[in-house]
Amino acid sequence: MDSDEHKRVLDPEHDTAALKALTHPLRIQLLGLLRQDGPATASELAARTGESSASTSYHLRVLAKYAFIAEAEHRDGRERRWRALHTLTSWSNESMEATEAGRAFVGLARRRQIEHLERSLARYEADLAAGRLGQEWVEPSGITDLMPRLTAASLTELFDTVAGKLEELTARDADDPHAEHVVFVAAGLPLAAHEHAAHEDAAHEHADRDLEGRDDEDRAGTARDGEDLNP
Question: Which of 49, 60, 54 shows the shortest CA–CA distance to 27?
Answer without folding.
Answer: 60
